[in-house]
């Protein structure tokens, strides 16, 4: 899963990126610190996988990963070449979801490009820039597709009509996700990859020790069909540098929400309707995988390895808690909590799967 971070300059994007990655991308108190797109692979920690590995004695733990893209801040007029942000929007066209970071802390030491703290105005500015960026992209594509449509290609004709409808919607301030592509041009959305077709998780960058999402941001997110989480980016970035024990002590001292980043990753999962399943061997690797809800056992097996999916015979399935309670597969088998399922079984969140397959 790939996510892209957007927001105003100095909103706290790189701080959040650092918090997520501890990668040390430069976060500094002047606008446009991030001039190279930063990409990091973040492990999606999962306490359930830790418990499984501990209970059955796995040799190592491999979490699934999230690819996070940090870009330069967007300012009003970015689509006309203002600031640096617009050129970086291309870097996040291929992401699955967008994290929209908005400043909601009022630390006077941090410069705001518009000289005031107003989360809703900032959210609107960025959403407008995303709309403009998509509008420009769509207008350019309409020209290209129009030429193909002239040759009578039916998919191109359908795509052109859809693009024209899209241009109108974007121009009227409606996001691309409100204009589904026609059946005759099913790839139209994928060809364009509009930013406003992606699910958005709004991230309110709140003051230290203030875990609450401002009401206005929560309302904005709900109206936009997204959800919102609150994070103190700078504190989280600082805590990410510490070892876990010191970080826990610091959190207690500051009264900072323990699980802000976990909540953020969880929010992203929910937004994309993803669930996790695990594979775990005794004295072998324990591993987590994110899959779309409803994925079949065979589909999930293909996520482990294409050959395993192809040669799928059956799956042994157990809930993570049942496996932990039993203390191992043979004990679980004795208890009758380990089940055999076929290729079409829809994996549930938190299940552990062992695939039997013919190589
Ligand atoms: N008080 C406070 N300061 C913060 C917080 N998050 C970020 N900052 C500070 O705000 C400044 C800008 O943060 P960055 O994370 O670099 O912001 P950015 O959105 O990446 O900025 P650009 O890359 O310039 O667009 C830095 O000085 C941070 O330390 C926060 O939660 N609280
Ligand atoms: Mg930055």
| Ligand identities | guanosine-5'-triphosphate, magnesium ion
The overall pLDDT, averaged over residues, is 89
Number of domains: 3
Strand content: 15-25%
The sequence of SSEs as H and E is EHEHEEHEHHHEHEHHHEEHHEHHEE
Q: What spatial form do the alpha-carbon principal axes imply?
A: flat
> Structural class per helix/strand content?
alpha/beta
CATH class of the largest domain equals: Alpha Beta
CATH architecture of the largest domain: 3-Layer(aba) Sandwich
CATH topology of the largest domain: Rossmann fold
Low-confidence segments, given as residue ranges, are none
Q: What is the straight-line distance between the termini?
A: 28 Å
Q: Roughly how much helix do the residues carry, as a percent range? A: 40-55%
Give the radius of gyration: 23 Å
Count of helical segments? Answer: 14
For the biggest sheet, the summary is:
6 strands, mixed
Strand order within the widest beta sheet: 2-4-1-5-6-7
Q: What's the total number of strands?
A: 12
Q: CATH superfamily membership of the largest domain, which one? A: P-loop containing nucleotide triphosphate hydrolases
Which SSEs are present, and which pair or pack?
Elements (H helix, E strand, L loop, with lengths): L1 E5 L6 H9 L16 E6 L3 H10 L3 E3 L2 E6 L14 H5 L7 E7 L15 H32 L3 H18 L16 H5 L7 E6 L9 H9 L3 E5 L1 H9 L2 H11 L5 H12 L2 E7 L4 E8 L4 H8 L1 H5 L1 E8 H7 L2 H7 L3 E3 L9 E7 L2
Parallel strand pairs: 1-4, 1-5, 3-9, 5-6, 6-7, 8-12
Antiparallel strand pairs: 2-4, 8-9, 10-11, 10-12
Helix pairs in contact: 1-8, 2-13, 4-5, 13-14
